[in-house]
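Summary: Need help interpreting a holo structure output

Steps to reproduce:
1. Submit the protein chain below together with the SMILES for zinc ion.
2. Request a joint structure prediction with the ligand placed.
3. Inspect the structure token block that comes back.

Expected: a single structure record containing both the chain and the bound molecule.
Actual: see attached output.

Input attached:
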Amino acid sequence: MEVQQALQKLDQLQRKQQAYQHAMGLIDFDGATAAPSGAAANRGETLAILGEESYKLATGEETVALLDGLYANLNELDEVQRKIVRNLHEEIENMRRVPMDEYVAYQRLLNESQNVWHKAKETNDYALFMPVLEKMIAANKRLAGYMKPGLPTYDALLDRYEKGLTREKCDSFFHVIRRELVPLIHAVSNAAQVDDRILFGHFPLEQQKKLSDYLMEVMKLDRAHVGIAETEHPFTTSFTKYDVRISTHYHEENFSYSMFSVIHEGGHALYDAHPADNLAYTVLGGGVSMSIHESQSRFYENIIGRSRGYIRLIAPKLRELFPQLSGVDDEALYLAINKSTPSLIRTEADELTYCLHILIRYELEQQLFDGKLSVQDLPGAWNKLYKDCLGIEVPSDREGVLQDMHWSGGLFGYFPSYALGSAYGAQMLHVMKQTVDVEGALAKGDLAPINGWLEKNIWQYGGLYDPGELLAKALGAPFDPMYYVNYLKEKYSEIYHL
Ligand SMILES: [Zn+2]
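--- attached output ---
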């Protein structure tokens, strides 16, 4: 087959895959937002059929031959085509190395593991989850060996979510985090506490929805292409750059929960909506990795959304929508939303303590995969780390080792990306400030210069560059976690008069 003809076929293949992703994604999104509760079984049936068709298309003989052919002619392709072929070819190679019976058995185990975890969490029964967790760890060790035979197991797991990420890089990052942030968190815990009672009360749903619209407008999310819905656990999904959906959860007793969900998910949506047009409908049309994605969402949520300048910008709107805030000044709002307290649940953690939750999971995962920690001893090790790093006692496994769905879903090696993303964002701010007047943009209420920098350096590239390459280009220097540490030290030392 001629290369040109093969490229046309590749384009058709990707559009067809995108159509499957679109359909499955929409069904998933509907399931998490609007679908009636009795629809799950029907949805599962439909998704299984579509998933099978999509899998056949991705791994069928015709696709394999097409990609092998193009892979042999990489030098005739342009940069975008080359990257697409490389990515798809690598995926197929990975799949080929996993024996079919092992793959099928793992899908079954995954389903069992998620069901058992749900029950175990509900009933606070770690012993129920223990045997299946043990099987999940063993299965993931084997899968890592098949997929990345040249890499040590935990490196292979990290590489799955963040191409090029290694244990060595993570170790040096988390070493700095632990050394620098644990003492800071202790100092904050011992300082005079911030009063955040103004965040609690009754904040009607209708008013909170108006706040969501306003926040999306401030972020310059194009509402013709970005929708919002309500869900239990907020998330973002994008079908293409032209159809991105965020979701939030309204708590009538505290408006800030949904407010920061909208800003966080809005950060993901900005990224998903802005890859260059020539990447749309290709496998490079979304964000490149989890940590780069989190660098965008957490940049908006924390570095922008919890900054003094941003709070000053939106405070008048908050007072207009919620009359009980009419006597509250900007500074009181800024302090309340930046209150830091060590807590049990990762997803509810504040900006300062969040990374320690990730560090704890990272350390435990390594010990589990190194065989240095047994699943029997996991809850004890979890509780000890919460005491050492955050100074708190864990009263139950439900609020401890059973809280996250990740391990039951086989997502070992995934957690570090949350913390790395936060740290990347802080260094991006430093670089951005060299050419963009961030404070000035917030004071004027026009965030275009901030978005402009992010689009130019991150968003437009979609999946064209590997995460490490993209970051190096954007930062113009090696990644250094001290930018993040210094940002947190400066911010919290001022708030808590340290
Ligand atoms: Zn996120």
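--- end attachment ---

Reviewer comment: The radius of gyration is 23 Å. The chain is about 65% helix and 5% strand.
Status: needs-info
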